[in-house]
Every structure is written in structure tokens, then in C-alpha cells.
Amino acid sequence: MIAFFVEGEPRAKQSFRVSGRGGGFQPARIKAWQSDVGWAAQQAIRQIGMLDPLEGNLTVELTFILGDKRRIDLDNLSKAVQDGLNGITWLDDQQNIRLVLDKYVCRQHQGVLVKISENCRATEISEDEMLAMIASEEMEMA
To answer: Are the C-beta atoms of residues 13 and 80 closer than 8 Å to each other?
Structure first.
């Protein structure tokens, strides 16, 4: 497992904005946050002696600590972190087959706690397995 904390106010990454010339861009503050995330990851993987990005399926847990109660979508917060880790902790965020997200507020200390572990669960299931999953969920809701 890889675990580390990135200090700083987490930034949400939305879709590319289109400039007047038709090209897309990301605001500098988003790029800076992604760079901070990547730097923290590099420090963490050096400490555990990891040489190459992880391959295979992964579980990613992200715990965001924000400085106030602004309305920020968790999925947009996770996009910035996951994109910042591409090529560092994993090859590509498409490897992440389980994503656990939490959000808290702490006025004194902000950042994101990142935990990454290998996930050996099969990603392909049969129709019978899918129907059993749905039936199980429906029974829990009843």
C-alpha cells in the first residue's frame, strides 16, 4: 500500500475550459495542485523503494480536508488528484477500479490523504453474477 498526505487547499478539476482560439486550458492553480500531488507521491514512493508505477487494478481512497464548507464536488476533487498521479504511482487512472471518497472541513489544516492498494478483484462478470448483485442490493433496500 502507498499512503501519503498532500498539504494545501485541494483544488477541483473540471472539464477543460475553451480559450478564444478554440484550444483548451487548465487554470494555473489546478496545474500547481496537480504538481504538488505528484511531488508528494514521488516522495512517498521513494521512501518505500518503489521504482516503477503500479500496474494492474487498484483501489484508491482519497480523504479531502477542506478549509471551509464551500460546495465542491468530490468527483472534481478526485479528478485533479488522479490526474496528478498518472505516470507516477500508476500508469493511468483507468487502472482504478474502486474509488472511495470522503470530504471533511478543518479550518486549521487542509489537504488530501491518499491511499493506494492493489485490487485483485475480477473486472469482468457474467450476466448471472450481475443479476445476483442487483438482486442483493434490492433485497438490502427492501
So the answer is: yes
